[in-house]
Amino acid sequence: MWKLLGIAILLVVSLANISNGQLITVRRTSSVGNPIHQTASGDEYDVFSASTHEPLKANQLVPIKIEYRENRGLAMIQLYWESISQPFAIIDQPRLFHSSTPIHGSPFEVMPTAIEPTEPMNCSVEIAAWDQLEVNWSAPNDDGGSNITKYLVESWDASITGEPTTTQHEIVVEEDSNGSFHHLITGLSQPSSVLDGFGVRVSASNDEGYGIPCQSTFLKPFGEPSPPKVVELVRVANDPSSLALHWASVSSPDDKSSVVTHYLVEVSSRDSFATIDTSVMLSADLVSSERLSSYNNVDETWNHYLIDEGLTPGKDVYVRISAVNEAGTGPSSRSIPLSLSPGGKPSDLDDVTLATIEADDDTSVGESSSTLRFSWRSPTSDNGFAVEKYLVETWLTDGINEVQELSLQSPTGELTRGTFTLDYGNDKTDSLSIDSTAEDVQSALESLSSIRSVRVWRSGVNPSYQWSITFMAGESDLLVVEDDTSLTDDSGSIPTMQINVVTEAVSPLGYNTEIVTVEDPLQEHYELILSDLTPGLSYSCRVSAANQLGYSTPKTSIPLQLAPPIQKPSSPTNVILSVASSQSLEVTFTKPDSDGGDTITLYRIGEFSCRVFCFFFSKLISYTFSSSFFIRMGL
Fold first, then answer.
1. Is 284 helix (H, G, I), strand (E, B) or coil?
2. Which helix (H) or strand (E) is 209 found in, with range?
3. Bridge partners for 285 per DSSP
4. Residues sharing a CB contact under 8 Å with residue 109, sequence separation 6 or more, in sequence order
5. pLDDT of 338 above 50
């Protein structure tokens, strides 16, 4: 018995009886012109058996001839024997003596027919683009006896469980083909979170059909990511040397099938980015922002980075950012606005004083009693933007500061996440965390051009925060919660924020303002004469410096209050002494230019005193038009 294991074995077996030379041939088919047998691929043996016509003799050699044609692959032949005295077993190798001789002049007429070709050779797959694979292969070693006419390229999503659904592409072989082939598979987009990739295999076909494919190759295409879609550049409250960068994350499919791991931020002083002043590679895991994906309807997670190195207040900088994944650094996005200069409002003022003015040869009593001298020094820093003007405010008695209350309201009582934005006078803050402290909110509000000074207190805990905001008297616009406020909680509910006016503002009594324009940028000391004041009334005074970003926090004078002094009246004017008679003189004069801030009750003439009573004064005023006095004195 012969057992055959292999692929495509054509076999003829002959047994010869050594005693009489009789030749017995065993074959599977009766037609000599057809193949005797072609074994199937697999691990199972095909079995053949035959018996000799005459008994075999012990200890004598028996010639056995095996003729075969190997079409493809490798094969194995096992030879067994069995008799009454011999159990069925493989013939031991020491009992076999063999030689291999190619057949010449075979007694059989062999007419081979074509079969399917073997698998294509040198199959390989490489990434052509983030959603494309290029397949390369060469012709099979065995075309099966018929010319290769076409190839079948199959691809499938390896992440799908079960029997894959393949996409098939037939490649027709051209006559001038050199034996090397390639094909581009497109549209292979797969989320970056899926790592399985796509399977690819190639089969060759001749007139008999497609043969077995080459071994499947798996590869995931990916490419350099797209740039962030939204990039915001804003100034930082109370930090004139920094800028804040906000940008939306790059996720699938914009990450081009590979997770973004870093972001490259580049800062330049030139619009062309011909020179890069600062370049920093940021880990995507370390720049997440508290902004929700619903912020401004971007539908992406947000990121935040503080650019705080190498910036000069008032000097424009340009910023661009690129996403980075396994494939490399993608193209960049420019910020909005394209350029921005860090900076802030002017710093606090120094040496703010309020003083009286003494009457002298250059200053009349009237001026002295109705004016004050208000002086100050320029700010220690303009924070990048030149001071353009100063706002001087004066008032008699304090007004009432307006108090507004900002409250967080949660429908579920669960912890709230997200950010909010406040608007005041058509100027709005940057995004504020819902857990912002009182200092955070105060700094954000004071960075607005329309607010000079506020005080903020926070009470309660998340999700029941309340911020009490006290505005400086004279500033009483209503805060507005901007539409880009985006909040949520663990239940998916949307908390809200509400603003209520707790105390309405009342303007200070006698409130006046005056603008002092800066003529010389190098001027350090400023002085303003406050005129037309009421003598004896105490005035308060403060000053704020302004650049193009707004007014600084106002600085109140020292002393906090001061009154123009009430003092002696100035001398009567137009005094004329004339002879009225032989026994009297006549003095005519007009009232002083200034009464010194108080009503004149007595005039002294030489050694005589004349008290001006109301009835006489009134009559005299009526007669003299309130400007001249006539007194006759007897001698």
1. helix
2. strand 209-210
3. none
4. 32, 33
5. yes
Give me the pLDDT at residue 105, please: 62
Residue 615 lies in a domain: yes
Angle at 313 between CA 309 and CA 318, to 5 degrees: 65
Angle ∠(540,543,546) on CA atoms, nearest 5: 160
DSSP string, 115-145: ----PPEEEEEEEEETTEEEEEEE--S--TT
* Averaged pLDDT of the chain: 85
Question: How many angstroms separate the first and last alpha carbons of the chain?
Answer: 178
Question: Given a cut of 60, is residue 630 above it in pLDDT?
Answer: no
Instruction: Show the tokens assigned to 566.
Output: 């009430």
Residue with tokens 């099966």: 144
Same domain, 388 and 512: yes
Tokens 């001038």 identify what position?
Answer: 176
Into how many domains does the chain fold?
6
Is 6 inside any structural domain? Answer: yes
- For 53-99, write each residue's pLDDT tens digit: 677 777 777 777 766 655 555 667 778 877 777 788 888 877 777 77
Pairing of strands 427-428, 486-489: unpaired
pLDDT tier for residue 393 given thresholds of 50, 70 and 90:
very high
- Is there a single domain that holds both residue 331 and residue 369? no
- Quote the tokens at residue 496: 């809200």
Is the backbone of residue 474 left (phi > 0), alpha (psi -120 to 50) or beta?
left
Same structural domain, 467 and 543: no
Do 194 and 159 contact (CB within 8 A), yes or no?
A: yes
User: Which residue is it, tokens 């007419």?
Assistant: 111
- Pair (458, 519) in one structural domain: no
CA neighbor of 40 nearest in space, from 73, 2, 68: 73
What are the percentages of helix, strand and coil residues in the chain, rounded to 5? 5, 45, 50
Asked if 245 and 305 touch (Cβ cutoff 8 Å), the reply is yes
Alpha carbon distance 374, 555 (integer Å): 12
Question: Residues 6 or more apart from 112 whose CB is under 8 A from it?
Answer: 35, 69, 71, 145
210 within 8 A of 201, measured Cβ to Cβ: no
Return the higher-pLDDT residue of 5 and 385.
Answer: 385
Give dist(CA 466, CA 478) in Å, integer.
Answer: 16
Residue 25 has pLDDT above 50, yes or no: no
Residues of the domain holding 627: 573-634
